[in-house]
Design a protein that fits this description.
Length: 320
């Protein structure tokens, strides 16, 4: 059966459809023009474990900076669950490339493993700035990749912390080092700084083991060290999360005050321990500013300024 539509009604329907089509077209056009007029560079901050207070502080500092510069850039903040979850961090890099961000500011979980993903990001037209943990120079050279670094001299900072510990000991005393991820440049540099201070003071380094930046792992390592070396005098930890684990192990062994503990990062959780001596020293690399320095470097490059040379940021000794 055919349904006949009066010609007048048909003309009205065609007219309404035409108006709707025109309106949609104008809306899309206006939206595109609006985006063009207010487009801002999109910067992705990719950090390591958000279970670590250091990176929460870093993220907070970055968000405050963006809030004060809303007219200059947009910020996307990312982090991984565990310090060693390299696959997740590689995935975040790939996601940010897919979302067509203009720049990635990254604190890599591993100094070598992230290089291929970052090379792909740069090939896709994404600017990369490295903060906190320096990418391996050899891996960058092999990949023919140039990435500016913004971060502290970890070796110098750890040496300062180690010198405080050494000043409370006697030459020949036994000490141990709990380092971070062995393949992370900042972990390697902090271990080297501790070793510099201990060897200069004539201490006996009886063990160097990895706590992979994590409190629980460091607690297990420290517990074993205290059992194996009943005359151990100090444990130097590559970050404050591991220092918290070491402090708990020392307390459980009934050796508080007899075994010194030192850390690195100056997170809020160690402040009461610095006050009562459970932690004798740490280093502050100013987590709230570190990502900001990287973001500002990225924005300069995006504005067409020359890529900056590697930038060394402040690291300060913190004691009671």
């Amino acid at each position: 059966m055919k349904v006949m539509i009066p010609s007048a009604s048909l003309r009205n329907i065609v007219f309404v459809v035409a108006l709707l089509t025109l309106a949609l077209g104008l809306t899309a056009c206006n939206r595109e023009k609006s985006n063009e007029g207010s487009s801002q560079p999109r910067v992705a901050l990719i950090m390591k474990s958000l279970a670590n207070e250091f990176f929460l502080t870093m993220a907070d500092g970055a968000r405050k900076h963006q809030a004060a510069h809303r007219d200059q850039y947009e910020l996307i903040v990312n982090g991984i669950k565990n310090e060693t979850d390299l696959a997740e961090q590689v995935g975040l890099v790939e996601q940010m490339v897919a979302q067509q961000v203009n720049a990635i500011v990254i604190a890599p979980a591993d100094s070598k493993a992230l290089v291929p993903a970052l090379k792909r990001a740069k090939a896709a037209g994404v600017l990369v700035v490295n903060i906190d943990n320096k990418l391996d120079a050899g891996a960058l050279m092999e990949a023919d990749l140039s990435v500016p670094f913004v971060g502290p001299d970890n070796r110098a900072g750890a040496r300062l912390v180690g010198e405080v510990v050494a000043g409370k000991l006697t030459a020949g005393d036994k000490v141990a080092i709990i380092e971070g991820v062995p393949t992370a440049f900042n972990g390697q540099q902090r271990r080297a700084g501790f070793e510099d201070a201990m060897r200069t003071a004539g201490m006996n380094i009886v063990s160097v083991q990895s706590g992979y930046w994590e409190m629980d792992r460091a607690n297990n390592v420290a517990t074993a060290l205290l059992s194996e070396h009943p005359d151990l005098k100090a444990i130097l930890c590559g970050n404050d999360s591991m220092a918290l684990g070491a402090v708990a192990a020392v307390q459980a062994a009934g050796r508080t005050g007899k075994v010194l503990v030192a850390g690195f990062d100056n997170i809020a959780a160690v402040k009461p321990m610095l006050a009562d001596g459970r932690v004798v020293a740490t280093a502050d690399q100013h987590a709230d500013k570190l990502a900001v320095f990287g973001i500002e470097a990225a924005l300069k490059i995006l504005r067409g300024e020359a890529a900056p040379a590697d930038q060394t940021t402040a690291v300060d000794l913190v004691t009671r």
